[in-house]
Amino acid sequence: MRAQAVFTTLLVCAVGLFSKTNVVVFLTDDQGWGDLSLNGNTNLSTPNIDSLAREGASFDRFYVCPVCSPTRAEFLTGRHHVRSGVYSTSAGGERMDLDETTIADLFQQEGYATGAFGKWHNGMQYPYHPLGRGFDYFYGFCSGHWGHYYDALMERNGKLVQGKGFCVDDFTTEAMGFIERSVKKDKPFFAYVPYNTPHSPMQVPDRWWKKFKDLNLEEMMRNRIPKKEDRLHLLAALAMCENIDWNVGRLLKKLDELQVTDDTIVVFFHDNGPNGTRWNGDMEGRKGSTEEGGTRSPLLIKWPNGIKPGTKVMPISSVRDLLPTLIELAGVKERSKKAIDGRSLKPLLSGKTKRWKSRTLVSTWKGKLGVRDQHFRLGYKGRLFDMEKDPGQRVDVSKQFPDVAERLNQRKQSFQKKVLEQAGPDTRPFIIGHPEVSWTQIPARDGTAHGTIKRSNKFPNCSYFTNWTSKEDFITWDVEVGESGNYEVELWYACPERDLGAEIELSCNGKSVVTIIATPHDPPLVGKQEDRSPRMESYVKDFTPMKMGVIELTKGKGELKLQAIEIPKSQAMEFRLIQLNRVKEKETD
């Protein structure tokens, strides 16, 4: 019996030595630091997210970017977003350069199953697509925001499908299924779960809205400028945050059921500050701001086998630190092609802070720069703030601390010269027909309209083109064909019966395909009925696909052009997207 016990102990140790640590990363969209009960907000309850801090580590001063796609790029690469080619949130500026190595690449190379579930926002056309950036599996959407959250059009590994129910619930269910399949195959997993809420449109199921729709907000939980609060938007955001918490709890429960909780690292953080004026710990700024309120996020990391419960980390840290941290914790080899800007937080998670070197973090957006060290913040207007005595950034102390102001200004100027000024213009075309995949999506979002054609909204991410009334009008995309061949064209359109008959041509480098809009499809706008607060973005429609025919594409750069060569009625159509599918050549004897 004693020998058997010794053998069992050795076997357990051996399994521990050779097993790999799983990773789950939650990233929420437009949720503020103050949108958690963990951080003192008594207007809502987020027990599942709060448990990550209680059972793991919480970071007191963790910083992300002012907006969505830059934060995602920094998490994925461990590098400042400008260095990786990300400078915008649409029109191609959200794409990471193809010579960047992502955290998913690194885990995939170690034999992990890698999956992403939700909002990608770092490029749609392969190889900018998640499947080209280290992920084996993708379910969600690649755009910056989505126009409707119920039974919405989604993508599963390049195929357009209809989602099931509320999108965040749907993403969580898909992630849970991926994790369960990985466990059954005895394969370690890296699951990236980037939710798209509480980003607008402000939609949330009744189960959560009922609690908040008539809620009397506590006076202590108001924004520093209460008159700027939009009550409906605020209440909807809180309801959406409780829905997020419920879904985080669902996935944590699934880890328990699969008995993989102890050796799974779970990470939770946000992509920027809050998307509205609401309580955020009296901080200055919100989404889009380089100030404290626009860039401070919670960071919670739970790992029962590696992190002591209740660990609190006080030194400042960055989203750029997550790649080096997670690969070190999981024992994944560093194979990045370029120098990482972040540093591993493992010493801080182990309580080894004495040798931790002080640092300065820079955030930038639309020409504004903010600089933060452990004690001070240099605002984009050049004012200096003592963040320990004045966390609300109300008193400029640049005259009291001239040496500090000079040091942080030098850091700002150095960043401008070494990073911003070297970025250069974006000349990257949209890649279509890449040889490694058979499909390419070409949305209205990435197109340029000519003539009187209009976008459905100034925010392009989930928009469509309308007001197509003249034969002189057209839409273009600067593209690069990855592989010569024949491609079947699928056009997603809307057109009422009274306007049928337009002749539509898609052309590229001298080749074209022509079709006639012959079948009516006149869907209503959707979203308004489900919105809890009026939106700024476009309402959407359920566009339908039709086969245009086959176009021959030749490898190389060119212009893809969509034009109505005949418009017999008042308009040609409304346009949402094109999907190209490479036609397999028939085998010959």
Overview of the molecule:
The protein has helices at residues 2-18, 47-55, 68-77, 103-109, 167-184, 206-212, 231-257, 292-295, 322-330, 346-349, 402-418; strands at 22-29, 57-63, 113-119, 137-141, 153-156, 159-162, 189-198, 264-270, 296-302, 311-313, 317-318, 361-365, 368-372, 376-378, 384-386, 430-432, 439-443, 448-450, 454-455, 465-466, 474-481, 485-494, 503-508, 511-516, 544-553, 556-566, 574-582. A hairpin with a 3-residue loop joins strand 13 (368-372) and strand 14 (376-378). It is α+β, with helices and mostly antiparallel strands and 589 residues long. The N and C termini lie far apart (68 Å). The strands form 5 sheets. Strands 1, 2, 3, 4, 5, 6, 7, 8, 9, 10 and 11 form an 11-stranded mixed beta sheet that branches. Mean pLDDT is 95; it is low at 1-18. It has 3 domains: 19-357, Alkaline Phosphatase, subunit A (3-Layer(aba) Sandwich), CATH 3.40.720.10; 367-422, no CATH class; 430-582, Galactose-binding domain-like (Jelly Rolls), CATH 2.60.120.260. 22% of the residues lie in helices and 26% in strands.
